[in-house]
Write the structure tokens for this entry.
Amino acid sequence: MVEGSGDKGIQFPFISEAADEALEIIFEHADGIASEHLARALGFKDCDFLIEELDLAGIHIRRQTRRDTLYYLAPLRFPAQGDN
């Protein structure tokens, strides 16, 4: 569950548990997290499929390339209820 303001986090019931965990990890790294580090933290060799799942759910993870390494950054906004 992604932490929002206060005690309640934002719950996205339409994404997998792994995608939800990826989103949590991305939010924990304000300056972004390298794709390979995110995959390793989740126990995968690659995490592109999770980022694609989030994109398809309307949660658009920002991408940034630094020194030939892909970083994922938290989305600027979340889809409204019912959007996806």
Observations:
- The beta strands are 2-3, 9-10, 33-34, 62-66, 69-73.
